[in-house]
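ping. complex inputs:
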Amino acid sequence: MPGEPDQWHTTRVRVRYCECDPMNVAHHSSYVAWFELARTELMRNRGTSYADLERAGVLLMVTHMDVRYRSPAAYDDVLEIHTRLDHMGKARLRHRYEVRVVESGGEAVGGRLTAEATIELACCGRDGRPRPLPGELRAARGV
Amino acid sequence: MPGEPDQWHTTRVRVRYCECDPMNVAHHSSYVAWFELARTELMRNRGTSYADLERAGVLLMVTHMDVRYRSPAAYDDVLEIHTRLDHMGKARLRHRYEVRVVESGGEAVGGRLTAEATIELACCGRDGRPRPLPGELRAARGV
Amino acid sequence: MPGEPDQWHTTRVRVRYCECDPMNVAHHSSYVAWFELARTELMRNRGTSYADLERAGVLLMVTHMDVRYRSPAAYDDVLEIHTRLDHMGKARLRHRYEVRVVESGGEAVGGRLTAEATIELACCGRDGRPRPLPGELRAARGV
Amino acid sequence: MPGEPDQWHTTRVRVRYCECDPMNVAHHSSYVAWFELARTELMRNRGTSYADLERAGVLLMVTHMDVRYRSPAAYDDVLEIHTRLDHMGKARLRHRYEVRVVESGGEAVGGRLTAEATIELACCGRDGRPRPLPGELRAARGV
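pong. complex structure:
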């Protein structure tokens, strides 16, 4: 239903060694890759493959990214990335993300918040020009 | 002088191949590495080595990152990252960044804006606890 | 049994967007992260957590890496990384890796080889000095 | 002159924070990006832009990479990457690389070897099919 917020989708990742820095925690740029992964998994879950979109010449480019880091995540921690569509315009999408630590040091932990973010995407063609979101995305409300 | 904004410092990077994605432009996470590089070069220019700070047990962790992507940067483009200290609190720093394309396809170009950002850092110790910024940073006003 | 080759262990990864380059395939450096991931999963499967080893001051550093790239992997492909211990010395380990594409464009594919590698690790302490492999690793023969 | 080894070309990089790992040294995958950077700078020095080659539909894909890590490099170290063309076939190139630390902790150091490598590239078209190296590369002997 239009106007209703989309439901959260959850993706799990384990923090890779190469994603950590000398502070012994996940580097803040690693989250950017996880957010990207999480929104493509959300799309897949709603029936759209971002890989297919790109093959069809539809690109989604990040235009705005706002990330708040709440607490560190360590190497080998298991994270849940909760993602939901926050806004869909004619040629724009905005998602909300929450990243929570669910396993640390081999033990289950209670879902401590490590970061939260809002990221906006603009739809454009291979020529870089803006274009409307494809119908399948608008139908699914699920990018 | 307290309250006066710090001057801009400029760092150059050339976009690496591995920093680009299938859209044939610099991936949005690559900018995060450039911002980090730019603020450490700003610090170095003001007389403080971030590497020395870490060796002394003083860590600067990113707590908030807001990035607006204005236009794409291509592989092999030369970028200027303009950075200035925007705010310095007792245990926090905030920088402003502008990234401009100054060479593209082997030709000088006029400094098209590719991204701008505001990033906040919190000062903490090895134990992850907040601590005041070291005196040398506060004296230099230059992180 | 000493001298007997260790069995293959299989880890799955899906190629992330940020792991691909303007050729529209996984960048060759992305495999290096996957090999690292695969050997830590092999270790975990054999009962040893690399994270625990590091907390105990035991580091495994890469000393030699030989990778042959056989065919490209695309964004969103699902890969299987087959890993086995190839040699274990007093303070050294060597693993073999084969990376195969098992899903591409949303369809199962027959396991086309995309890369194979041999990587050697040296065991050392926090001071960077060589040290014998810990007993648990030698017992498990499973790093 | 045919058969004569090409001269060494030197590129400098400073180790970025995000290129280091919890061992507090440059992660072994970071070198892979530096080798790529170094060979494109060698090409540029010999008069060929790899960016231009790609725009003309000529791709150079890594087919074999052999890296020996000799000693660690730390965050903020300045490295020299010495690169030379080792072999040029009809559709293949092979380069040699040596990476040396020339500045560490803000002090000049004597060029300690941190890694050396041999990397082979195959020339192919946008379709992934092998194709002969372009004349300009063969003329320059400088890729």
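The mean pLDDT of chain B is 93.
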